[in-house]
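Newbie here. two chains, one complex. Structure please?
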Amino acid sequence: MIIFDIKRYAINDGPGIRTTLFMKGCPLRCVWCHNPESWESQPELMFKQNKCIGCNSCGIHPHQLEYIRTKAQSTNLEVAELCPTIALEVCGREYSLEELMAEVEKEREIMTGSGGGVTLCGGEPLMHPREALQILQELGRRGFHRTVDTSLYASPEVVQAIDAETDLFLIDLKHMDSDLHRRFTGVPNEPILSNIRLLADKWEREGKSISDRCWFRIPLIEGVNADEQNIEATASFISNLSSVNSQPPTGWQGGLSLLPYHDVGKDKHRRRGTDFNPEGIKMTAPTEETLERCIQQFAAHGLTAKVGG
Amino acid sequence: MRRKIEEYMNFSIKHPENEGGMNERIKRLRQENFDTPTTLSIERALIETEFYKKYYGTMPTPVLRAKNFYEICKKKTIYIGKDELIVGERGPLPKAVPTFPELTCHSVEDLHTLNSRELQRYTISQEDIDTYEREVIPYWQGKTQRERIFNHVSKEWEEAYHAGVFTEFMEQRAAGHTAMDGKMYHEGLLDVKARIEKRLSELDYIYDPEATDKQQELEAMAISCDAAILFAERHAELADKMAAELERKGEAAQRVKELRKIASVCRWVPAHAPRDLWEAIQMYWFVHLGTVTELNGWDSMNPGHIDQHLFPFYQKGIEDGTLTRDQAKELISCLWIKFNNQPAPPKVGVTALESGTYNDFTNINIGGVDRNGNSAANELSFMILEIQEELHELQPGLSIHIAENTPDDFLMAGIRVIRQGHGYPSVFNPDTYVKEMTRAGKSLEDAREGGCSGCIEVGAFGKEAYLLTGYLNTPKILEITLNNGLDPETGKQLGLETGDPRTFKTFEELYEAWHKQMVYFVNLKLSVNNYIERMFSLYAPATFLSLYIDDCIEKGKDYYSGGARYNTTYIQCTGLGTITDCFTTLKKHVFEDKRYTMDEILKACKENWGEPLSNSPRGGEDSVSSEMSTGNAALPPTGGAGRGTVMRQYIRNHTPFFGNDDPYADDIAVRVYEDLVKAIEGRPNTRGGKTHLNMLSTTCHNYFGSVCGATPNGRFAHFAISDGTSPAHGSDSHGPTAVIKSLGKLDQTKSGGTLLNVRFVPALLKREEDMEKLGKLIRTYFKFGGHHIQFNIVDTATLLDAQKHPDQYRDLLVRVAGYSDYFNDMTAQLQNEIIARTENEEV
């Protein structure tokens, strides 16, 4: 399994203090993505130009660095070991399950003591279901709370298999209009919405509360999905999920987070030599008014949305 | 994880006025306190010099000291401010700091420097300087404690001291770190005097060869009681006089009432045990003033668990209707302002770098456990947090004590204050420090009544004389080891000849060489510690302080002569993070991977990693240097980095460092720590007690860095070394949980305190749940046996702006190694260090 980051003291990826494992590989290509280095499944070279001191330890002529900057992925990965400043760095490395668990076990006390656990993130963890399942099963065997941060863009079989080994889903809802979804993320949203309904129905049947089983997270981007129409559709979709209907009138108790857009993805694209937002789609962070309006729209459907994590 | 930038941008530190619940009186007192300049007062020195001229040699030392104290209490100017309810100052005015020429006598040059320097200025008039030169300086020449010490020490000691291998706390200040237990609230000085009389009557002059010494000490103690009662009576007289004056003019009827009340309070305490909250607070304040007037102890004086001590008075007042919550808060706020009216006595000579601050280190303990081990957090603990947040002054410092049984709501209340970013409260773990104390031989009950005074050092409050004697510069000792005993900074052979490190075949050889040098320097320091302790016993006994430390009266012995129930001598070791990183660098790259030879590393250190030596060292170990400033240039320069730079970068980026939960580094840190314990612990001191290890650094890591050349871990010459037990700056890159895991590997119960600074950007504490998570982080660290943790909640933009516009951030507080300070009172070096410290920002 290729992991490109292990983040300790993760406090925005589910309940409690968590350790977040970032799996490499994603079928989506969201234009706003802040982890573009997670797109490809294989390790890749990143070049942080501001860290380069021009020492030539890498043996690459400085003018070739420009080439590396634009073609980072295709360059020989071993060259990174020579770089004193980690200006050249390999993103992603192969972990055995044991290695990964050793990393996770380091945080056992803080995770269990804080009602936290492990979050599997990406990329899209469901893109490598066999490995994701392996990790989740082992975490379960070790008694850790397991959260999966996913777009749910996967086959229904995979989703159901993952559900059996997951305590909480963090589901990213990006757009309700499939054409626009395809335009902004590269894939249609039907499989995603159908998987959500599938899960909701499954939980309903199993007598589980959807609030306990999943939180929704909406990256809120002016120019992409923050418009009234899309929010209305999103709110309506969530509030019509079967097990939501069965909730007491207090309504939605699970997490519904609005994550205001930021453009830190830009720099990561630069590092991997790819272009950020090549089509030049106009994206901006939502204003306070927009945030407030979205919160109101969700409230009208009995949903409590909060801003952040 | 997706909104960090926004959170970062939106944050603004609350400043300058958080007026919340402060009433008009407290607002005025606080403003006055801010507006009052810090001045140097020669009054105490004049009274003392005159007294010594007349009486020195005519009476036993303890009696001489007690009468000197009496004379000061009798003659010094009494001050009562126009809004004050709690009265009394150390000097003639608020923030007027006396000198203590019997310990160290400021020269005319010192006084001019203090009067004119930019930071931590103490103003003094030319007239006073002239008087000092005429009346004070000539008498004390050759008779000060400082001269006694420097005339005694060996050449080896003096050279190591001047090179910055260690410092000496007691060369110009008395030992302090003194905190009180609850006895003053049950016993007036007249009661204490009765106990003294009883002890005197029981002395056996035939079978107890020390009886005469005891008699002298006990008589001196009785005089000290009278002195403090007289001092209070003089306040009563002045209050009455001021009241009469107002009455005569027919003005301010309310103030007249207050002044009459002040007079009656001062006539009751400290002679008698206090009966209500007002008297209890005034009682403490007189005792505080007594100890800081008698001598200039480091870490001044500390009320200890004040929430526990004052609570019965508060409860009684509320129950019988004589007190409201608001009145209680006002009285405690008045005390808080008093603390801030007492800047630390300034040092002489060039040692200001060692600790240049007004802070006098009163670190008040709230929460924690009581004598029986039950949670002690009460209503006043919460109120004190409120007061601390509202006043946010430099002094007093505040710490919350979080045992396993401390309720979460108290921890959360503390974290809410931490989040404000003023730098406090720091957080302590009674479960660990009680173990530290019982391990050192204190009874469980006494340990539970103890806590942390000053920075992070533990003691049994009201029952222990625990002397911090100075810091040990562990990375400097490595520098000396790597030069075969020679100090490259001074060019002197300071240490042993342990061999040329280029000939070392294994890491073990290197470690052993360092170990030999370390033991040598510890012994050198200890040999003088005992002498200094004796000098205090012989020349500067603390006969007033001894009244409040068990069992000085019962034993008939002074605080400095083994009178206390427990007598500890601490040596504080600094730079654990830096030295660990140096060791891992050498172990990995020289002895294991053989990427570099020892010679290459030594040369690179000598050449400061290719950077020009700067006279004004910057902050952290990984501060951005010119080599890194290629910024956004289109292309990096060709061959733009020298060999030293490349080596340094490789080491900084490819070495396991302390603070990352990596056993490679952590095992070495544990080894160094255990070896320091073994070298220091258990040596007999002159007071019947033993030496112990401590791991605090205050700001000394800056001074120690400034005397230490470049080190193998890639630290530039003269940059700060790591503080306390914190990772070196820029070394920890795996977040706060990795840091606490690394720190948790040290058996902290073997120390008298460790110190961990963790910097948090405000974005990490924005939501209620974030604060709960911080609470869990603290709880987890304490489960690992952590002693102390503190948080710097600041953002870089704010700090940079504060450097540019100090006036707009006058009361901006940040956390440095164990205490709070005003950001703009700090040197640029300290400011830069704060900015350079690792930010645990999540992106």
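Moderator note: Residues 1-19, 615-638, 810-822, 837-843 of chain B have pLDDT under 50 and may be disordered. The longest helix of chain B spans residues 211-249. Thread marked as resolved.
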